[in-house]
């Protein structure tokens, strides 16, 4: 899962990025509204953390431009404690949620997890596919109750496929959501990670859709209502 942080306070930006990276998210960072708008307009993100009080272009304007251009990624806005009007303006501009400064980083992480789950149609913090269980709150995965030992790339791959269960996901899309903007991306490595993940899961849940990509599918005897 790939997150964009647009926050001009460099210390806060770094703290948020480090916390997200510890939870296996891929993070891109911007420090002003113009840079943030450009990244959000040209790169695919699973969620954005957007400060309202930004230099160059304020956060509300950035968000309005994204929504006007059809950018639908979930956006969590950061507002000052005494500026209730910023919260209203942000929500009206298309924000999905807000956090008031000062805040605990854990609250931001929880809200981001919830936004990503909701955007992909999952209500619970746990997503289940057959014997595989993804705990989004703890950033862990298990098979039949046994915790999987996954690399960060393998976890990101599994997480993205499970969030988009029963959907065909192309290699290009996986690459775009598993690596940051500066990474030397190679879609051929996705096949390697898929192969490793299949071995560790030990069950046939990841289907190769020839010429299109991959799809993680629930076992036929598992009802759709058990996905989360």
TrEMBL record:
GO terms for cellular component: cytosol; protein-DNA complex. The modification 4-aspartylphosphate is found at residue 51. Residues 124-218 form the OmpR/PhoB-type domain. Gene3D superfamilies: 3.40.50.2300, 6.10.250.690, Winged helix-like DNA-binding domain superfamily/Winged helix DNA-binding domain (1.10.10.10). Residues 124-218 bind DNA. GO terms for molecular function: phosphorelay response regulator activity; transcription cis-regulatory region binding. The keyword DNA-binding applies. One of its GO terms (biological process) is regulation of DNA-templated transcription. Keywords: DNA-binding, Phosphoprotein, Transcription, Transcription regulation, Two-component regulatory system. PANTHER family: REGULATOR OF RPOS (PTHR48111), RESPONSE REGULATOR PROTEIN CARR (PTHR48111:SF37). This is Response regulator.
């Amino acid at each position: 899962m790939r997150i964009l942080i647009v926050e001009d306070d460099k210390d806060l930006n770094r703290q948020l990025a480090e916390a997200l990276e510890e939870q296996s998210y891929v993070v891109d960072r911007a420090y002003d509204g113009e840079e943030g708008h450009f990244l959000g307009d040209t790169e695919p993100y699973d969620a954005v953390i957007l400060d309202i009080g930004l230099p160059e272009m304020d956060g509300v304007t950035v968000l309005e431009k994204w929504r006007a251009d059809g950018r639908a990624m979930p956006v969590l806005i950061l507002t000052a404690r005494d500026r209730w009007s910023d919260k209203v303006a942000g929500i009206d501009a298309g924000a999905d949620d807000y956090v008031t400064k000062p805040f605990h980083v854990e609250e931001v992480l929880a809200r981001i997890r919830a936004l990503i789950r909701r955007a992909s149609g999952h209500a619970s913090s746990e997503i289940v596919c057959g014997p595989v269980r993804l705990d989004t709150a703890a950033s862990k995965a298990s098979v039949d109750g046994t915790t999987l030992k996954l690399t960060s790339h393998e976890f990101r791959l599994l997480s993205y496929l499970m969030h988009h269960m029963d959907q065909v996901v192309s290699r290009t899309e996986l690459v775009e959501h598993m690596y940051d903007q500066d990474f030397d991306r190679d879609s051929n490595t996705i096949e390697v990670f898929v192969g490793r993940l299949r071995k560790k899961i030990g069950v046939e849940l990841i289907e190769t859709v020839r010429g299109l990509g991959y799809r993680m599918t629930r076992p036929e005897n598992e009802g759709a209502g058990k996905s989360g």
